[in-house]
């Protein structure tokens, strides 16, 4: 079983990144990644265009957005476990961290990624805007809009 990212190049698709399941990741991480609209790797940002399957292969078609946007606070979580950052979405400028949640599994991450309204501990309920998996910092990021 594999999870393969394909990058959209003009009118074709090229394999970009492949993870073998379960050697490189388990099913829970594979499914959590499929719920993220954005993907960051190598200081580049990609936007999910299509989520597909072909036999036992899971396929994510992405389009390169460009260089990753930098924010004031961007800690790395590499080797520290599974983390989900909640950030206030702003079209321009900084997107400040509202809360960082340590989670026990990617299944726990999916619980948040599946919601339209999320309850951020200590902050209240917010409308979900989008989510990304940031491989460079080893963190899931959920962008939220207005508070309910």
Question: What does this entry look like structurally?
Answer:
There is one protein chain. By secondary structure, the chain is mainly beta. The chain contains 2 helices and 10 strands, in the order E-E-H-E-E-E-E-E-H-E-E-E. Helix 1 (27-34) packs parallel to helix 2 (106-113). The protein is globular and about 45 Å long.
Chain-wise SSE layout:
Elements lengths: L1 E8 L2 E9 L6 H8 L3 E4 L2 E11 L2 E11 L14 E7 L8 E7 L2 H8 L3 E4 L3 E11 L4 E9 L1
Parallel strand pairs: 1-5, 3-9, 6-10
Antiparallel strand pairs: 1-2, 3-4, 4-5, 6-7, 8-9, 9-10
Tell me briefly what this model is.
It is built from two helices and ten strands, in the order E-E-H-E-E-E-E-E-H-E-E-E. The protein is mainly beta and about 150 residues long. The mean pLDDT is about 95.
Assembly status? single chain
Mean pLDDT comes to 94
Low-confidence stretches: none
Residue share in β-strands? over 45%
Helix content: 10-25%
Q: What characteristic shape results from the CA principal axes?
A: globular
Rg, please? 15 Å
Cα end-to-end separation: 41 Å
Structure annotation, total helices: 2
Structural class: mainly beta
Count of distinct strands: 10
